[in-house]
Write a structure and sequence with these properties.
Helices cover about 0% and strands about 40% of the residues. With about 170 residues, it is mainly beta. The protein folds into 2 domains: about 50 residues, no CATH class; about 110 residues, Tumour Suppressor Smad4 (Sandwich), CATH 2.60.200.20. It binds zinc ion.
Length: about 170
Amino acid sequence: MISVRCPHCDVGLKVDEKKLPSDITSFKCPKCKRLIPVSMLSKKEGEGFSSSDTVLIQPVKKSLGKITVVADANTREQLFPLYEGIAVIGRKSSQPTQATIAIETADRSMSREHIRIEVKKDPKGGYKHYLSDNNSKNHTLYNSNYLGNGEVVVLNDNDEIVIGHTVLRFNV
Ligand SMILES: [Zn+2]
C-alpha cells in the first residue's frame, strides 16, 4: 500500500500498487474522478493523513468487452456482450452453425462463422480479447487492415472490425 494525495482534489489515497495493471500510466481518483499519473506512486508522501480524508482505491478491473454491430441499410444495431471462452461470430442463418453470436443481417457477404474472439483472463485479473478470422470467404478487416491467415490480434477499446460489408465496434 502506498499513500499519496490526489494532485487535483488533495484527498488522501491508499493505493495497492500490486493490484494496478502494469500497462496503465494513470488511474482515476475515486473522489474527483480525474486521472492521477502512476509515476506519483513512486513518491512516498502523505504521512499523517487522518482516516476521514483517506479513500481506498479499488483495484483497476479491466472488464469483459462487447461487440456493437453498427447499423446500416442491411443491418440494425445489435449489441453482444463477450464472455470468457471462444465466441464465433457470423450471420444468423436458419441452418445450424457453430456461431455463438449470430448477427441478424441481410449482408450476404458476411459468413455464418466469420470471426472468432477468444476471451482469456490475464494474470492481473482483467481480460484479453483475441480476434482472428475464421477462414471466412471474404476475410476480415481489422482497423482497416486485412487479417492474415492464422493472424491473431489483441482487441483494444474502440477497435473496428469489418466482416462482409458490416462494421462491428469493440468496446470494453
Ligand atoms: Zn482527486
